[in-house]
Amino acid sequence: MNGALLEVEDLRIDIGSGESRHNAVENISFSIDRGETFGLVGESGCGKSITALATIGLLRRPLAISGGSIRFKGQDLRSLSAREMRKLRGNRIAMIFQEPMTALNPLSPVGRQIAEMFVLHQGASWHEAERKAVEALASVQVPAPDQRVKNYPHQMSGGMRQRVMIAIALACNPDLLIADEPTTALDVTVQAEILKLMQELCDARGTAVLMISHDLGVIAKMCRRVGVMYAGHMAEERAVADLFRTPAHPYTRGLLGSLPRLGSRGAHGRKRLQEIEGVVPSIAAFPAGCRFEPRCERATAICASTQPGQTDLGNNGFVRCFHHG
Amino acid sequence: MLRFALRRLLQMIPTVIAVSLLIFVIFSIVPGSIASSMIADGRGTNDPKLVERIKQEFGLDQPVHVRFGNYAWSLAQFDLGTSFRTRQPVSSMIGERLWPTLKLAFAAMCVAIVIGLPLGFIAALKPGSLLDSLTMIGAISGLSLPQFWLGLLVMYLFALTLGWLPSFGYGDGGLRNLILPALTLGVAPLALLARTTRAAVLEVMNADFIRTARSKGMNSFRLVKWHVVRNALVLVITTLGLQFGSMMGQAVVVEKLFSWPGLGSLLIDSVGLRDIPVVQGSILVLVLCFLLVNTLVDVLYAVIDPRISHG
Amino acid sequence: MGLRFNLVIGGVLCTLIIGAAVLAPWLANYNPIMDADLMNAELPPDAQFWFGTDAQGRDVFTRILYGAQVSLTVGIGSQLINTTIGLIFGISAGYFGGWWDDLVNGLTNLMLSIPSLIFALAIMAILGPGLVSLLIALGLTNWSWTCRIARSSTLSLKSQGYVQAAKTLGYGDGRIMATQILPNLIGPVLVIATLGMGDAILAEAALSYLGLGIRPPQPSWGNMLTDARELIVIAPWAAIFPGIAIFLTVLGLNLLGDGLRDWLDPQMRTRRA
Predict the structure, then answer these.
(1) In whole angstroms, what is the distance from residue A223 CA to residue A205 CA?
(2) What are the transmembrane regions (chain C) (predicted)?
(3) pTM above 0.90, yes or no
C-alpha cells in the first residue's frame, strides 16, 4: 500500500462540541491508488459525503475531524496549514457536487467560473485563463465552447452544467477527483453520458476517482473496489466483482436486493424490489452495538451490545458483521 | 437591457393613473366643502357669498365627475392646478421644492449605503462576534427610534450645544446645512440595510456554489469578492427600493423639523392651510419619485442579475 | 443575542408599557391636563417631578403614563383593522381567484406604491386630528403585507388539497376559510401585526408631532414633542423623556416581533441548531 495516492486511516468525524457532541463517522479506512476509481456506497445519511468533504478539507462547523489520518501522497492533510491546503484543493484534489442546479454561481458566466481555476493555481492572467476555459469546455464535449463560455448557468441544461463542473474540477489535472453523487440529479440518459465522459477523461489523465453514490449500479459501472458505508461505519470493503458475487454484510445484500437490473438477469426474476425495512438511525441515536442491528434480520444479542470488528475476506476485502456470509 | 428599462417605465403608467385617481377620490370625499373649510380655518366665520365666489373660482361648484374630468385632463398636460392660497400654479411651487427634497433623500440614502452595507457585510462574515452583536443591537435600535426625535437630539448636540453646524434651514444649499437632516433621515434605512445585508450575506454563504468555490481552493478574500458580493447585493437591492418609499414619508417629518424647504414642508404647510391642490400635487410628486426610484432599482437589479433580463 | 434574548427583553418592555398604560391613574400623582401650573414650569427632574415639568408646568412623568394609553390604543387598534382587512382580502383573493384576485392584487400593489406615512397624512388632512381619525388613517394604510402573506398561504394550502378535502366533507366556503385556512395564518400574521404596531406608534408620534394627530392638551408622546424644538435648550427633559418612551416601546415590539418570527420560522430554527 506504499504507493497509494490517498490513504484514509481510522477517520473519525464528530458533530457538535461539548455536551451535544456526537460521532458521525468512525473507523473509516480505505486507500486509493493512482488512477484507481474507488466507490463509496450507502443510503443518504450514512456519512459518505462527510467523508468526502473531510478528504478535501471542506468540513465546516459543527462538523470536525476528531481522529485518524488522511494521507495524500504520503503527506498527512491534517498537518497542513490552511494556505497549504488551499494550494492542494482544486489543484491536486478536486470535487464535483451533486446539485448541478445550485453548485454554480448564478451571476457569473460559466467560462469565468472555469477560468478562476487557472488564475488561482497556475497564475494565469484573466485573458489567458478565459482562453484556456474555452479549451476546457471543449474537452468536456460541450458544443460551440467559444460561445458557451459566455453563458450563465441558468441558460444551460442540467447535463451541460455538470459538464461545466467536470471542466472546473479537471481544469488543473488533479491527481484525485472526488465525485459526490455526480449524476443523481440528472436524467437516466444524461447520467450514462456523464459517467462515460468522466471515465474517459480520468483514464486519459490518470486521475484517481473517489466515486460516491447511493446507486450500486453506478458504482459497478465505474469502480474496481468499493466500500459500503452504513451509519458512519464501513460495513464491508471489497473488490466490486467479489461484492456482487458474494455479498457478506446483510446491509450489502439489502442494497443489492434493491437493484432492479440484477433481478432481471436471472431467469426467475424478482417480482418486486427487495427493500430494507426501516431507516438509517440519526446521528444522535446510533445504537451501541452494530449500527445496522435494529434493521438487521440476522441480529442476535451480541449485535446489540458489541461493535463487530473487521473480518478478513481475502483479496484485500473485509466485513464488519458477526453473522456475515 | 434598454428594452427592459423601457418596459418597466411603461408598466409604471397604470400605477401612476391609479394613484392619481386614488388621491382625487380621497380629497373629494371631504366631509363639508373644501371652500368653506378653507375660509373657516381658525376664524369660525363663514360668509356664504365668499364661499360661493371661491367655489366658482376653483370650479368646486361643479359635480364630482366633471371635476375629475378636469383634474385628469390637466394632469395629462402636467398641470397640477392652481394654489388656493397663492394663486400660483402648483407645478411651479413644487418645482422649487423638488430639488431640495431629492438632494436630502439621496444624501440620506448615501449615508445608509456607505455605512450600512459594509457594516452588515462585516457582521455577517464574523457571525456571533462582538461586532456582529453590536451591529445587530444598533440596527434594531435604529429601527425603533422616532426619527424626528433623533433629529432633535443631533440638532441639540451638534448645532445648539457644540455650534458646529446650523440647526435649521437650507442656507446657501451647501453641505453644512445638509449634514444633520441627511444623517437623521439616513438612520432608519441604514439600520435596515445593515440587517438585510447581514441576512443576505449569511444566506449566500450557505449556498451550494460557495462550497464549489471553496473546493477550488480560493481564500476568503477572493471568495467574497468573486462570489459573495454580487449575489448578496441582488438580495439587498430590492429592500433598498422599498426603503426609499418609507424614506419619502419620513422626509416630510424631518424637513419640517429642520425647516428644510422641500416638498415635505410644502405638504405639511399646505395641509395646515387646507390648500388642497398643493397637497394633492405634492403627494402625487412624492409618490412619483418613489415609483421612479423603484423602477430604477428594478433596472439595476436586471443589470446585476442576468436571470431577470434573459427571462 | 439569540431567540431567547429577543423574546425576553421584548416581552419585558411590552409588559412594562402595558402596565404603565393600564395603571396610569394609580401611578400618576397629577392630572395630565388640569394640573398645569406656570409657577412650576420647566422644572428639572427631582423627587417631586420625576421627569421634570413642561412649559405649562405639567408633570412630564404623568403625561408619559397617559401618553402610553394613546400609543397603545393607536398601535393595537390600527393593527386590528389592518389585520382584519388584510386577512379578509388575502384569504378571499387566494380562495376564489379570478377577477377578485386580480382586483385585490392591484389594490395591494397600489397601496405598496404609496409610502404609508404620506398616505396616512393625506387621510388625517381630510378627517382632521383626533384618535378616531388616527385609527382610520393608520388602520387603512398598512394591510398590504398581511394581505400578501394571507393570499400566498391560502394558495399553497389550496394546492396541498386541504380545501378540496374540506369541500368533499360538505363544508361551505366561509367555513373552510375560517376553520381550514385562517388557523394556519395566525403565526405569520401575529409577527406582522407586532412589527406593525411599532410602526403605527412611530407614525402616530410623527403625525401628532406635526399637529395632525392627537390635539393638545390631551397628552400623546408625539405632541409632547411638538414644542420640544423650542424647549430643548431650556428644558431638555421635556423633549428627551417622551422620545425615550417611544423608543423603548417600539424597541420592545420589534424585539418581540423578531423573536416570534425566529421562533415560528422552522428554517431559521434549524439554521441555528
Answers:
(1) 16
(2) 7-28, 80-100, 112-136, 185-210, 231-256
(3) no
